[in-house]
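Step 1: inspect the first sequence and its tokens.
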Amino acid sequence: MNIDNYKQILTKYWGFTSFRPLQEDIIRSVAEGKDTLGLMPTGGGKSITFQVPALAHEGICLVITPLIALMKDQVARLNSLEIKSLAIHSGMSSEEIDNTLENAIFGDYKFLYVSPERIATRIFQGKVTRLNLSLVAIDEAHCISQWGYDFRPSYLKIAELRDHISDKVPFLALTASATPQVIEDIMQKLAFREKNVLKTSFDRKNISYLVRKVEDKGSYLINTLQKAKGSGIVYVRSRKRCKEVAELLVANGISADFYHAGLTDELRDKKQDFWTRSQTRVIVATNAFGLGIDKSDVRFVIHWDIPDSIENYFQESGRAGRDDQAASAVLLYSPADKGRLIDTIRKKFPPVEKIKDIYEATCNFLQVPLGSGKDNVFDFNMADFVSKYRLPVIETYNSLQFLQREGYMEFTEEINNPSRVHFIVSRDDLYKFQVANESFDGFIKLLLRSYTGMFSEFVPINEEALSKKSAATRDTVYQYLVKLSSFNIIRYIPGKRTALVIFTEERLVRKALMISADNYLHVKEKYENRLNSMIEYADSDNRCRSVMLMDYFGEESDRCGRCDVCRERNELDLSKYEFDLILDEVIAILKEKNPDAEELVKLIDYPEDKVIKVIRWLLDHKKIIPGSDHKLSWVK
């Protein structure tokens, strides 16, 4: 293997002359046929690690990802680079899926993106043996672990692919964040032939992690952004607050816009593009904002609301400073936030009987008979569902999430599928049709001028754009498409925006619906642990923020010197060496005896003024506490 060949591919398609840290190591490992787990930070260039080796070898790379928006984005980008790529996800008809798989088998394509719940379907497993696979890449690999923060049962089926493909095809699992326990779980669940983990440090040396304990977040945000330079992201938890905060910033002269999943694809793309090109300075967003962000000069990421896990916080804050220049990650935290976060436990885990109620209501709403429904995909309008059965939205959403975790169904949040067209006649037969039906000739020519590839696959189209080009109404365009479909000239699938429910098992009677109490409590306990770690991070004022984050991910790290805790320590006018030297002495003494402050100062052989500064800091941060007799004790 010559790494120069890979660098030539990198330069040809992406314009880079060298790989980022770890990219080359992962590519070498995969090229040697090794199963590989790559841990790379957000923005570290994960896709390059499978796209480059796939282009260097014969065959097609199978990419498994649960993120449909990211899947569509990557396929569009690859095709724009003239790299033939396809995607299969739950919003597609069985005819589209079959057509896509046939193209993947015979059409000299290099990438096939698949959502995980499609892996176990009969249609996929029936054809995967005929694919000339070069590599299987599994994105968001932490989803396979029940210890992780985003477990998806469909990921557990991925290892079964090994029964259908050559044992020479390596698996490449990728994730941006995983604890040591999750790392081991990923390799075990994917049946790695041998353990092989490649990772960079999670430590982002250029990011200053700050926690600001404020009651009036709006005023703090306005004052901060009026002083700060550069562009950034403000993360909030609700769509309503998203818009409110953006309007507050604009009202105070700050260039800002809002972004959430409830907006149309066109509007979201427009807002993201404006922000990426710095025409908008601040984007206020829910966690829907983040996929495919290509902006390296983000100077700050501010969390208005506290996330429910360190993993989520670390991933979102990691969108700052990808250019390796100084950046800030700020968490706004008020006393009320802790109570609200703890209250999410109750909302996140509805009673088991309520989850069963939601299951039965969902089956009835979608008219799924007992014993049927497996692998079927249904449009699912959440608003209509909760309205019909008078259900609370949050409890319903979390019940569906739990049913997904238990493996009964997959629930995708709202996705937008554009209209698609596929010509099902040959070019010769189409020409004969045009000659015999002159009234359709102009419209067919417009279609063929506007889009390519429609004879081999379903191609996304835009009725609005066709309307403008033809100076006809949108309804006229729609009628042409419907009529051509009725004449069996094309297959036309009108676009729709909807959430989906996919039944991974047939509908069961209520008493057969097994939601293990142990599993329920296990999941709840893990969630509470992640929540408590996040609260501890926000509450703490005596441990370096970076050290806390690195410790969570199983890494050792020195005090960063930049976070709010370190900055306060830096004001003591002591070097890290001096502070730690005195601190070690204090700990050693207090393990043996309990002197008062005056005695403690005398017991340490170091300049008195510096010892006093350290002891005062430790007292202020409650690392040492005085008893009623003023004797000091070390707080573990």
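Step 2: inspect the second sequence and its tokens, then contrast the two.
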Amino acid sequence: MEEPLQNSIHELLLNAATKIHAPESVFLWHKKQGVFESISYSETLQKIGFIANYLHSIGLKKGDRVAIIHENSPEYIFFDQALMKLGLVNVSIYPTLTAQETEYILNDSQSKFLLLSTPFQYSKYQKIKHNCNDLIGICTSFNKKEEGVIDFNTLLEKGQQLDFGNEVQDILGSICKEDLATLIYTSGTTGEPKGVMLSHGNFIYNAEDALQLCPTINKSDKFLSFLPLSHVYERMVSYILAMRIGAQIAFAESIDKVSLNFEEVRPSIVACVPRVLEKVEDKIRRNANNSGKVKATIFNWAIAIGEKNRIAKDNKKKPDILTQIFLPIAEKLVFSKIKTKLGGNIKLIVSGGGALPVYVGEFFGNIGIRVQEGYGLSETSPFVSVNEFDRQIFGTVGRIGPRQQVAIQNLENYELITVQNYQSFDPDFYCEEGEILVKGPNVMQGYWRKEEETQKVFDSESWFHTGDVGQFTHGYLKITDRIKNMLKTSLGKNIYPTPIENIYLQSPKIEQIFIVGDKREYITAILYPNLEEIKTHFGENRYKQSENNLILIDPEIRDWIMEDVKVLSQKLAKFERIRDFILKSEAFSVENEELTITQKQKRKFIENKYALHIEEMYK
């Protein structure tokens, strides 16, 4: 296994611009005046140089923190790369955070400079600026005439006029893999955010591991970036990995315009979260089944043919003769039309940030689109494992990265059940369930200014304790759930909500689900129904909120959903089945504080909010 030659993230870009491609080759794409325009490596490097000059001129030193509150865009890349060139530390803050949350991160990180994207972000900053004493400068991506604030274009102009000789180049040469590159603040379901300390080496080694397990990715690929770059998952896949191999990166305009941008950009690779893929699958099925009996029949026939082909290929076998004959017909009548909506060029979707329901992965596989599910955390840069392109086992998160070790620890006696690595891979290996521990050059340096919190997650053998429960099956890692999500019934049964929730989410009638049952005799749930399905079945105006604005009371809708709950319950053990449920009148969301920014449920908050309604289900 060769050692990566680059010592810094900026050197990855320099390598792509001079050795993988010519400087005038296309690197980035963005929408400008209604049209996607390209940006070359040479223009990118020029602007990075100007930004680096300016930041150096105002006294920022290697190791200083610089905060970025910015949507995905070329400006984000320019600024981040300038920071990487100077050995500064990127503190990316989610644009969706409140003013108070933003204030906490700016102060905890002791950020000295801040890049803001929009007037809305600036107005949020105005509320907290008197409490952020470490900041010495602000840059906005829009024109803002105010003392102490410089706009992006003016910053470039000032940087262009500066010349520090070899000073900046000497700083770049001093950067090593161990130097801090970023602080990524975990949203967390409880407590204050923690700044995950990731080095240049964490990202560089992680990109090498990902590339070795995803060798189909190459310099001719085009990535469409739409998940926030403030999250480590998108930053690794659609930015650092893409840059490492010299692929092009296109930025979606917004999450609302992603479907349009797919057709315009025609990407070959995208990083997704399971919820997005679930919605795409649901929309495709619903449209097909609502297009008349003939089209619905053709659609379901094509999916069945695709399934036979997928299963044969996954088992390294040749499809039967009828499947071989009918597959081109299914492709022409159904699959090609779906792929056209995704730009017609998609070869790989990477799924991470949560458990991908098996039926969703199988659906995309049936239509000929490979979804490679992986696993990782902010603390692991994030990649730990991924399904290999030629060996897909749905319900698992794949094979361990080449430079990493994963251990499974018994939850009762804390002994290690097994230690696995890339070299020890055995397709017949199984082990029992336990906590997942990780070692490797991808694991974080610790939590910023939180030594006690850091010590809690590392043991005496330097294993990082993920807090996730999993096991090995078919040699691949399988995730069960988070330890803190585990419910223990009053009858002594341990229950992990996520696998149960994924079973019930197979119903097109259910949009979201929250399992209840800790210290209870049986399982209940809070459901949010699929409004489109309700409108189709009951009419446009049927869905109404109750007076308390929390719970929907409609016996007919409830009975209609119960039909699917009863059928899907048969797939579960009796103690895992929902005995009762209530219907939410609005979706779980970040705005109503029921979800974290990364879409994780805040269990305690939700249970407290719906406590009275939950108690009614147990009377």
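Step 3: confirm your contrast with the notes below.
The chain has a mean pLDDT of 92. Residues 50 and 156 are 5 Å apart (CA to CA).
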